[in-house]
Amino acid sequence: MKWLRNNWDQVLVALGEHIVISFTSLAIAFALSLAIGIWAARNDRVFRWSLAISGFLYTIPTLAFLALLIPVVGLGRTNAIICMVAFSLMIMIRNVATGIREVPARRGRCGARHGHEPIEILTRIELPLALPVIVAGTAHRNGHRDQRRRGRGLRQRRRPGNADLQRHQQRLCAARSGPAR
Q: What is the pTM of this model?
């Protein structure tokens, strides 16, 4: 504690650098995984290859990965950011692709019937419905695994928010279609 009191300014500088590195790597990983995950949700071959490559990167030990990157980018923030991005990709790509794949196809067809462009269907229908899986996909998988051990089926666990979003999208689709003819 005495050292901490005497070196408080150094600790704050290191904490600030850590926060900058963490948020930078998270932003880069999110942008990459969102793009790759959307592509992987549409193409099974891309899904398999992206998970294989990101899974391979995920298995490399951290110190070995840092050592491999030293000749390429040197020591510093860039090295740490590349490692953190690489370790985040597998989980985030899988969650984005799985979330979009779990959106019922009839939701997209409803948007297409109302004249939405594919990008509008993605941003207004598919991504909002996939958001609970994208954000908490790992927690849902762990919950399912625990329920199997207890002998309960997968259908008994309700994902919070997903049903509410689906009902909201149904109401929007019905409201846009106008009165019944």
A: 0.69
